[in-house]
Amino acid sequence: MGKSKNFKKEYVTGRKDQYDLDYTIFRKCVEKTNTREELIQLLDDKMKYVISKIGSERANELMEEMELL
What CA–CA distances, in Å, run from 65 to 1, 58, 62? Predict the structure, then answer.
């Protein structure tokens, strides 16, 4: 769980790890698509997933802090 917290902190603050993750996702999406429109859609889907995953983990942390879990 410690790695997850470090990931979130660095991703949110815009450090190098965020760039590395974003670039890796971008490169994988480029490899999987043939058109610009497909690339845009796939990137949109993948980044929404990253954002929702981080949001979900934060919500769980807050609920634990408030002793709701």
Answer: 15, 11, 5
